[in-house]
Write a structure and sequence with these properties.
Elements lengths: L31 E10 L2 E11 L5 E9 L27 E8 L16
Antiparallel strand pairs: 1-2, 3-4
Length: about 120
């Protein structure tokens, strides 16, 4: 319980870092969670209620990808490992992978791509 000193009439008091909470890991972007509160003074209940808080999470999606057996995408001159330009990466060829990822969520994404795995 947080102890707050007296507040003079017709005045306000800001309590910085007075409260903290942890959300559950599967929180959805835009989901509304409620913090319940109760205000009490000496032997008197001043009110209670809920504070709605909208969750902000990243929402990532891949909206474009291209895999090519050519390095002409970067305006390079093809060499013997660039491939035969048939759109398939074959043994001995060097391929390029281009991915565009969008974050449509309300929060910044961090450490977005750590690895890409080929199957």
């Amino acid at each position: 319980m947080l102890e707050i000193p007296s507040i003079p009439g017709d005045d306000t008091l800001a309590v910085e870092n007075g409260f903290s909470f942890i959300t559950y890991p599967n929180l959805n972007n835009g989901e509304v969670i409620f913090l319940e509160y109760e205000l009490n003074s000496v032997n008197q209940n001043l009110g209670e209620g809920e504070l709605p808080i909208t969750a902000a999470t990243p929402v990532l999606s891949c909206f474009y990808h291209e895999i090519s057996d050519t390095n002409l995408i970067h305006h390079k001159v093809p060499d013997s490992t660039a491939g035969n330009f048939n759109g398939h990466i074959e043994p001995g060829e060097v391929g390029e992978c281009h991915i565009l990822i969008e974050n449509s969520g309300l929060r910044k994404s961090r450490n977005t791509i750590r690895a890409i795995f080929l199957k």
